[in-house]
Amino acid sequence: TGTFVADHCSASHSRGKCDPCKEGKGFTAHANGLEGCLPCRQCKDDQVILRPCNRTQDAECQCQQGYFCADKDCEICQRNSQ
């Protein structure tokens, strides 16, 4: 976790090379064969950061006070009706 494949193994029983994701830029949550890290989620202007992105987990965003998530991924914040 937190790494990607920088060099694949070139012969049987040889080891490849994994490099760490850049903190705050990309992440991998599980062991993988990816050739790059997954990009970190960027919270939108109407959201607050609950948890920043690190090498092993994505950022978690939440709507600002007075707003709610309109979908399960919280891509859209809607104002609470008063």
UniProtKB/TrEMBL annotation:
User: Which segments constitute the TNFR-Cys domain?
Assistant: 20-61
> Would the keyword Cytoplasm be found if you checked this record's keyword annotation?
no
Q: Which GO terms describe its biological process?
A: immune response; positive regulation of apoptotic process; TRAIL-activated apoptotic signaling pathway
The protein's matches in SUPFAM superfamilies, at most eight in alphabetical order, are given as: TNF receptor-like
Cited InterPro entries = Fas_rcpt, TNFR/NGFR_Cys_rich_reg, TNFRSF10
Instruction: Note the SS bond partners.
Output: 40-53, 43-61
Keyword Methyltransferase in the entry? The reply is no
For this UniProt record, the keywords arranged alphabetically read as follows:
Apoptosis, Disulfide bond, Glycoprotein, Membrane, Receptor, Repeat, Signal
Q: Name one GO cellular component term.
A: plasma membrane
Locate the transmembrane regions by residue number.
none
SMART domains xref list: TNFR
Q: Where are the TNFR-Cys repeats?
A: 20-61
Gene Ontology molecular function, alphabetical: transmembrane signaling receptor activity
Compartments in which it is found: Membrane
The protein's superkingdom reads Eukaryota
According to UniProt, the name of this protein is TNR26 factor
